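Section 5: illustrative case.
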């Protein structure tokens, strides 16, 4: 079974997370389907992306959620993210 290390939004946003498999908890601020089919879920300063190849029903705005997946630095947008989201509750 894969271990997903709990991280804070602050540590992930500032690049202080050393794990690739992470989980993040917080309030969902925004959910948006992008043109490429990805679903962006904003939790604090972090974007968590559900991709079409691993379809999940997204949480809803205002919901408390724990999302887990792979941490990555998106050089195009200059932010840390969870991409892809592998699950949430």
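Designed sequence:
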């Amino acid at each position: 079974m894969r271990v997903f290390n709990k991280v804070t939004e602050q540590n992930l946003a500032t690049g202080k997370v050393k794990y690739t498999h992470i989980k993040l908890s917080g309030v969902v601020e925004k959910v948006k389907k992008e043109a490429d089919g990805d679903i962006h879920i904003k939790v604090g300063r972090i974007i968590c992306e559900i991709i079409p190849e691993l379809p999940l029903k997204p949480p809803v705005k205002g919901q408390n959620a724990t999302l887990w997946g792979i941490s990555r630095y998106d050089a195009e947008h200059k932010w840390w993210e969870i991409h892809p989201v592998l699950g949430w509750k």
